[in-house]
Amino acid sequence: MNSVRTIGSLVLGLWMSAGVIAPAQAQSPDIGSATDLVRLFFASHTQRFQAGSSPLLNDTDATRPFLVDCLAVDGLQGRLGFDPVYGAQDADVTELEVFPDPDAPILRGAAQIHVSFRNFGAPRLFIYTLIPVSDGAWQINDIYSDDDGWTLSGLMRDAGIASAACDPKSEITLFGMSNDQEQEAADAVTPGMEEGDLPGHMDGAEEAQEVAENDIGMEQGDLPGDGVVAGKRDLLFILDASGSMWGQIDGVAKISTAKQALRGLVGDLDDNTSVGLMAYGHRREGDCSDIEVLLSVADHAPGQVGPAIDSVTPRGKTPIAGALEAAAGSFGNPDRPADVLLISDGLETCGGDPCAAAEALAAQGIGTRVHVVGFDLKEEEKRALQCIADRGNGTYYTADNSEEFGDALKQIANTVNKEPAAPEPQPAPEKSAIFEETFDGPGIDPSWEIVNENTRLEALDGQGALFVAAAGKETFYEGETARNRFVLDSPLPEGDFDLVLKVRFPVQTGSEHAWLSVFESPTEQIGALAWATWKGCGPAINFSLVKVSGPAGEKPEKTAFEHNLFNKGNMLSNLCTDERGYGDAILQVLEEEGATIRLKRRGRALTAVFEMTLPAYEDKEARLYSFETEAITALRLSGRPSFFMGQWSGARNGESHFFVDHFAIESGDNE
Amino acid sequence: MHLKSTKTPRRLQRHVRATAHAALLSLSFCSAALAQETLSDAEKARLAASDEGADMPLAIPTLPFGDTFEGSSLSADWTVLNENRDKYLPDNGAVFALQTGGKAHPGGAGAENIFALNRTPPNEDFDISLDVKFDPKSGYDDIWLGLWNDRDDYLAANVSVHTNGCGPQLRLSVENKRILDDSAKPVTTGFSSNLFDGPLVKHICGKGARAAGDLVLAALNQTGFTLTLSRRGMQYSARIDFTVPQTDAFEAGPRSFSSRAVSRLAPFGQPFFMLGQAGKAKNGETTALFEEFSITAAQ
After folding, report:
1. In terms of domains, do B189 and B284 share one?
2. Which domain holds residue B145?
3. Of A372, A388, A433, B48, which residue is least crowded by CB atoms under 10 Å?
4. CB count, 10 Å around CB of B13?
5. Looking at the structure, do residues B29 and B79 belong to the same domain, yes or no?
6. Is A46 helix (H, G, I), strand (E, B) or coil?
7. Which residues of A touch B182 (CB under 8 A)?
């Protein structure tokens, strides 16, 4: 390892030399400073390797001065399972050279820096792409292995690693830091300092929290099985991620302006619009087939679309025609009105005919329109893109600066929002809510009776949820003295109905249970039960339909269908084998987004339904999960709608916490 | 470029706090009218209540609040409950404390030297933090930090070193004691994790683990740790941050562990900290150095 150690010893000198050139660089980044940054990054990484310290890439604070925020992810190297700086799991580095690309040191505003060395004698070449950020400094935007053909961003995407938002205006840079920050960074590359390891967590659930929550990385044509909502208008964004998008307007890269405005547009759209995202040129240079559906058109959860937009990094060519052709397969329902919005700063560079492609696209489906925002184009280029909008039955918007770009997207939002959704050929029957409680406050509906109320353990949280804690004795659903049982002072509806409860809860005692029932007394109930267990292989979710019946004061007879959703092909096939990580990711969703529990009456049959969105994880895509139990027969159903949040005695001294977001009684007569 | 020999994030935080305090002080002399306008609604309500003859409730601290215990006595911000001056000493930048007798628990009768801040907790989400150097030499030693109303009504983060068959164990806990039902006994809930049984050391009884654990315990006294009680909405959890030394079991570097959450629906009590000792300590002595106390708004 002597060779590696030699590299590491250069760090301080490089650091100081880099600092000396900082003032000039703040105004006009040059290729020399980009080379210095890569060299310092490599040396910092090497020094930690040599010292046996936690890898640089595992430490967000240490990497952010070097990398754009998109790539600075806690524990990155550990989660990738190998070292992307060496392209290996071990290193004996010799003959290191760091130098600008001989042919194109700066390509479309991005610096191309080569790092070549021998690792255990084998030649290795990596190409670092750097982009200018907030204060004119460079930051590493990606690493490409010339030997193996991977990119760091691609590896992260393939591994389902969610990255932070990438905003060049807010990047922490090595040379733009205060003295204190500089010293911290210097400390970070000094052996023996206290930087390094990923903070731990006692219950080991932290990694699950990092799991990507979107379906970034879908290949062209992939569609999730769920999430398409009927009775709406579709809108597909096609974002130009060709290298020219790194060009600047008003000192800001066009891609940054486009991303920011696009995120704003998504927020301005009404609930009747399902959106999707396609990009081209964002993965490979010079590859006209580089077209990808990042998010298929569907009803994505809030917060899903933004990260997908942020994940786009311009690199390649401009295959507009190919993208429009691919767009034809990106809509979930061909009978639904659809808009396509193409955002481009240049003309087709792959030989296709985008105007003809737009015309073909508009001819499919009902009311399909292709709109274009031409960004920073010359007059002749505008005319060429105008053709796409004209033949695509859409509107062309011109934007010569960021303000005009934002205005154009606002106009599009208005256009889409005002467009009445066309009637569905066969509209799905909508269930009517007979009663609804959203817990928005200031109080809950007076129809609720809270049996054994204890205001020390339940309250509205002021954010649209009812917070309930279970603690102390007799905290289970059939307990006579169980606190805070919510019973609606209303008879059951005639005929078929659904009781619906949306609830979030962290599994922290492993004894949590959420109970939705028809309640006559604690020992006379039938209900749906979502409950946690914590056994040898860790926490799991279970779901049951339960009927208890018996006189007060005695243990009731129980009839039940019980299912472990983390086993036997439900959410997971076998928690105890290799699916713990996925299970933890599901629990994280349960805590943050929650699940919907239904108790369904259809004639004499009662069933329980559990629904939640399962997250993307490794090779699994995000999907809507629904499980319905077997039926229990109720010949004479009586009682009142009720819910209860509790914990089994296995919780011991622990507390179980629940956030109830929604309760409703829906008519089931339309099914 | 000027390179300083050492500068840690913690010191940077102190610098920021000190600057913020200085700014607040200067503001207070600028304009009473301005100060009036910047009072929170809660603070206005408190002042209004006191003006109507009610007992003056404790003030809400202006955040960030911090005390590095400079000087030879505690500031007027503090009250020492069940004070025993033979068992603590403010000493220019730290409060040295010792415990004997095995009765030092926030829920115990006669617990001495509960350092209570003369403030009510903020109405917003916050972190209460305490920098400590801790010598767990009796084998049944505790640090407590949290909110305290009385011995039957407190919520606290706890770092403990208690001994069992494989030697002293390092635990992080959060404890929540209160009356849940009127006319009933108080209920204590909480979560406790043995950091030497999984989170930090896989199993302290295993081969080589004891040596690693002992190095960690020694570091608690040499480099210290930060104990934090965090409020997020109605949920409270404990966290410990410290730097572990290089051992055969793990690499040197910072570590952070968090507890699960307990709940209180409304702010209560006073922020407090204390050195604890359990009954099994028998004749042993426990000592600690409290170096900094702070309350900051949640990030």
Report:
1. yes
2. 65-297
3. B48
4. 16
5. no
6. helix
7. none
